[in-house]
C-alpha cells in the first residue's frame, strides 16, 4: 500500500524541487496564469518539454523557498524573483531562447466565453450581419441599444457595435447576448509578465528588440550625450570631434578676417573667396 504524502512531505518535496530548478536554470519567465485551466496547462507543459520546466504553486511557499535557498547558497540574485511573485503567477525555468519560449507559450491560448462579472481583457465588438435569431429575441438588442432590423424572419444587426470596452466588467445582458450569438470574445493563456536572467529582471518587451533597435537606441544615447557635452563645454569623447571642428571654424574665421595672420588651410579658403569676389559683385550689379 502506497503511503499518502502529508502536507509537510509535499512542502518538503516542493521546496527541494524549486531549489533544484534554481540551481539548474539561470533563466526564468514569470507568467500570469489567470483563467488557465489544468488541461490547457498540461498542453503547454507538453509543448515546452525538453529545455523548459513549468512550476506552479502558492506565492508564500515560492517566496519562502527562494529566500531560504538564497541564504543557504549565498546567492542573493535569486531574491530578485520575490517581488515578482504577486497574484496568480507561475515560473517557467528554461535553457532555451527566451523569445522563442515566450512565443511557444503564446500558441496555447484558448477561446473563452464572456462570463458575468469578468473584467474584459479586450474590447468586444459585435459585427453587423444576420444573427440567425428569431424576432422574439430583439429585446436583448434593445436593452443594449444595438440597432437591428428583421430580415427574412431573423434579426439582423445593422452596424458594428462596441459592446464591451477593455477593463469593463461583463454584465448579464452582454454575456447572454454573446452566448446566443456564439461569440467567444476572450482568449486566455500563460502571459509572460517579467523575465529573470542571471540576476537581472526586465520587462518582456525587451525580448522584442532587434539588433537594429539596439543600434538605434545606442546612437540616440550618444547623440544626447554629445549635445549635453557641447552645451556645457565638457570634453567628452563623443563630443571631441565636434569641439575640434567648431574650434577650427573659429580659428579659420579669425584668419580670414585678419590681415597679418594666416595658416596653410586658411590660405586656401582666402584664395577661394578671392576667386569668388568678381561673381559676387556681378550678382549685386544685376540685382
From TrEMBL:
<dbReference type="GO" id="GO:0003735">
    <property type="term" value="F:structural constituent of ribosome"/>
</dbReference>
<dbReference type="InterPro" id="IPR030670">
    <property type="entry name" value="uL10_eukaryotes"/>
</dbReference>
<comment type="function">
    <text>Ribosomal protein P0 is the functional equivalent of E.coli protein L10.</text>
</comment>
<protein>
    <recommendedName>
        <fullName>60S acidic ribosomal protein P0</fullName>
    </recommendedName>
</protein>
<keyword id="KW-0687">Ribonucleoprotein</keyword>
<dbReference type="InterPro" id="IPR040637">
    <property type="entry name" value="Ribosomal_uL10-like_insert"/>
</dbReference>
<feature type="domain" description="Large ribosomal subunit protein uL10-like insertion">
    <location>
        <begin position="114"/>
        <end position="183"/>
    </location>
</feature>
<dbReference type="GO" id="GO:0000027">
    <property type="term" value="P:ribosomal large subunit assembly"/>
</dbReference>
<dbReference type="GO" id="GO:0070180">
    <property type="term" value="F:large ribosomal subunit rRNA binding"/>
</dbReference>
<dbReference type="InterPro" id="IPR050323">
    <property type="entry name" value="Ribosomal_protein_uL10"/>
</dbReference>
<dbReference type="GO" id="GO:0002181">
    <property type="term" value="P:cytoplasmic translation"/>
</dbReference>
<dbReference type="InterPro" id="IPR043164">
    <property type="entry name" value="Ribosomal_uL10-like_insert_sf"/>
</dbReference>
<dbReference type="GO" id="GO:0022625">
    <property type="term" value="C:cytosolic large ribosomal subunit"/>
</dbReference>
<dbReference type="Pfam" id="PF17777">
    <property type="entry name" value="RL10P_insert"/>
</dbReference>
<comment type="subunit">
    <text>P0 forms a pentameric complex by interaction with dimers of P1 and P2.</text>
</comment>
<dbReference type="Pfam" id="PF00466">
    <property type="entry name" value="Ribosomal_L10"/>
</dbReference>
<dbReference type="InterPro" id="IPR001790">
    <property type="entry name" value="Ribosomal_uL10"/>
</dbReference>
<keyword id="KW-0689">Ribosomal protein</keyword>
<comment type="similarity">
    <text>Belongs to the universal ribosomal protein uL10 family.</text>
</comment>
<dbReference type="InterPro" id="IPR043141">
    <property type="entry name" value="Ribosomal_uL10-like_sf"/>
</dbReference>
Amino acid at each position: 500500500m502506497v503511503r499518502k504524502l502529508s502536507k509537510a512531505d509535499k512542502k518538503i518535496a516542493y521546496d527541494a524541487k524549486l531549489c533544484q530548478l534554481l540551481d539548474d536554470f539561470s533563466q526564468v519567465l514569470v507568467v500570469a496564469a489567470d483563467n488557465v485551466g489544468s488541461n490547457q496547462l498540461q498542453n503547454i507543459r507538453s509543448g515546452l518539454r525538453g529545455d523548459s520546466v513549468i512550476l506552479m504553486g502558492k506565492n508564500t511557499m515560492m517566496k519562502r523557498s527562494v529566500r531560504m535557498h538564497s541564504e543557504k547558497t549565498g546567492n542573493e540574485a535569486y531574491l530578485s524573483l520575490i517581488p515578482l511573485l504577486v497574484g496568480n503567477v507561475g515560473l517557467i525555468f528554461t535553457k532555451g531562447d527566451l523569445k522563442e519560449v515566450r512565443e511557444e507559450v503564446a500558441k496555447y491560448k484558448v477561446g473563452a466565453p464572456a462570463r458575468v462579472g469578468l473584467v474584459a481583457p479586450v474590447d468586444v465588438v459585435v459585427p453587423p450581419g444576420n444573427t440567425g435569431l428569431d424576432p422574439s429575441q430583439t429585446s436583448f438588442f434593445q436593452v443594449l441599444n444595438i440597432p437591428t432590423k428583421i430580415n427574412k424572419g431573423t434579426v439582423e444587426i445593422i452596424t458594428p457595435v462596441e459592446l464591451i470596452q477593455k477593463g469593463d466588467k461583463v454584465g448579464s445582458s452582454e454575456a447572454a447576448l454573446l452566448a446566443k450569438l456564439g461569440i467567444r470574445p476572450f482568449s486566455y493563456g500563460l502571459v509572460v509578465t517579467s523575465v529573470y536572467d542571471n540576476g537581472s529582471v526586465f520587462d518582456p518587451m525587451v525580448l522584442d528588440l532587434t539588433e537594429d533597435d539596439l543600434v538605434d537606441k545606442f546612437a540616440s544615447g550618444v547623440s544626447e550625450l554629445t549635445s549635453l557635452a557641447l552645451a556645457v563645454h565638457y570634453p567628452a569623447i563623443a563630443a571631441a570631434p565636434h569641439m575640434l571642428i567648431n574650434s577650427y571654424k573659429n580659428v579659420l574665421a579669425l584668419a580670414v578676417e585678419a590681415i597679418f595672420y594666416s595658416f596653410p588651410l586658411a590660405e586656401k579658403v582666402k584664395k577661394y573667396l578671392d576667386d569668388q569676389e568678381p561673381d559676387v559683385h556681378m550678382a549685386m550689379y544685376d540685382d
